[in-house]
Design a protein that fits this description.
Blueprint (H helix, E strand, L loop, with lengths): L6 H7 L7 E5 L6 H12 L3 E3 H9 L3 H26 L4 E3 L8 H10 E7 L2 H8 L13 H16 L4 E4 L5 H18 L4
Parallel strand pairs: 1-3, 1-4, 2-3, 4-5
């Protein structure tokens, strides 16, 4: 007999993603890494955090890269790293918050992955990023104002993702299960152009 806890994993194994990865997009603090790891377990796919991969190949932290080379060069490196990641076997990818803003990167992710926007409200984002002082874009006198501007700039682009799931203060398993349900709907819908 199958336990209740095994049902989401069992259903996740049955989803036909047509050889695609699952790319989580959204602002810093939306939960792309923590929820992504749980989702990867459910889908029985490897997980890769693009920022961690960038740090591995560059041997510098994201903050150091921003300080040394600026955002433009960081985004170019990010695009190259994501290009290599999606060309490899299917996996769950936690992207950097700005990755989806690059038109070429966005096109590549839309072609090679099912894109999932983890949408979150500003209070949740600020609560989460306040715990980690290593966010280069928030090193400003008014971090909440910066976050609000990022939301205004990025949310219309994130809305182009294949799937939107609300990130909130809930167990990561709950959000991951909601993504599995949405992926199942996506796979059955025939919208995989």
């Amino acid at each position: 007999m199958t336990s209740t806890a095994d049902r989401p994993r069992q259903r996740a194994r049955q989803i036909d993603l047509q050889g695609r990865s699952v790319a989580l997009v959204g602002l810093m603090g939306a939960g792309k890494t923590t929820i992504g790891r749980k989702l990867a377990q459910m889908l029985e796919m490897p997980f890769v955090d693009s920022d961690a991969e960038i740090e591995r190949v560059s041997r510098m932290s994201v903050s150091e890269l921003f300080a040394a080379y600026g955002e433009t060069e960081f985004r170019a490196l990010e695009a190259r790293v994501l290009g290599r990641i999606v060309e490899d076997r299917p996996r769950v990818i936690g992207t950097g918050g700005g990755a989806y803003m690059n038109e070429a990167t966005r096109g590549l992710l839309r072609q090679k992955a099912v894109t999932v926007w983890l949408k979150a409200d500003i209070d949740l984002l600020m609560e989460r990023v306040g715990k980690r002082p290593t966010r280069p874009l928030l090193q400003a006198p008014d971090p909440r104002g910066v976050m609000q501007r990022l939301m205004e700039q990025r949310y219309p682009i994130y809305a182009e993702a294949d799937i939107t799931v609300q990130s909130r203060n809930a167990r990561r398993e709950t959000i991951a299960r909601e993504i599995v349900t949405a992926l199942d709907r996506w796979a059955r819908s025939g919208d995989q152009a």
